[in-house]
């Protein structure tokens, strides 16, 4: 029996990289206007790489995309010689653009139909805000790595989802694009998993998902089979 569905966000419900790149570009333009020495000293790509540097140096916050971005900006400001830097204003520029995502066409109608039959929740390693994106009406709740303190494939987010959904792991279906974070993570937590493989990639290896789909609308047929009495 299936009691609930959980969904990854980035690259499952929308394509994430074009949005992040655009957000980084807007942030860079804002920095060039407000703190020009940062833009003189760093390229936009180097600012992104600073996030990776922070993650390596501070593994305790590596799961928190918001803190990584803020710490990287603060670091860049310091290296560019700014003793005072409004990191919240800078991050707000990035964050607004990062949430201006374009849902894949079938996503909203599919989620709306599914939400009439099951509680839905989102489980994300990123810092997308489903309220800003306008999907908070279909999700009963949303969990992120920032909320729970650990990223998928670790079990914590899946365990918290079980607790909030008041369901056993095997009663929940998790849907996501990432073979490690979503499929391996979900399987290890005892969830049924569906690999959303939009690009038609080969399975990279390891335990396979319980089902594979190429767009979200195909999920309904998978659930119908699983719901059949046997
Ligand atoms: Mg994803």
Structure, explained:
With 230 residues, this protein is α/β, with parallel strands linked by helices. It folds into two domains: 4-14 and 103-227, HAD superfamily/HAD-like (Rossmann fold); 17-98, Four Helix Bundle (Hemerythrin (Met), subunit A) (Up-down Bundle). It has helices spanning 17-34, 36-41, 44-57, 65-79, 87-98, 107-115, 130-133, 145-148, 156-165, 179-188, 219-227; strands spanning 4-7, 120-124, 141-144, 172-176, 192-196, 211-213. It has a six-stranded parallel beta sheet, with helices on both faces. Strand 2, helix 7 (130-133) and strand 3 (141-144) form a beta-alpha-beta unit. The longest helix is centred in the N-terminal third of the chain and has 18 residues, at 17-34. It is elongated. The termini are close together. It binds magnesium ion. Magnesium ion (MG) binds next to loops.
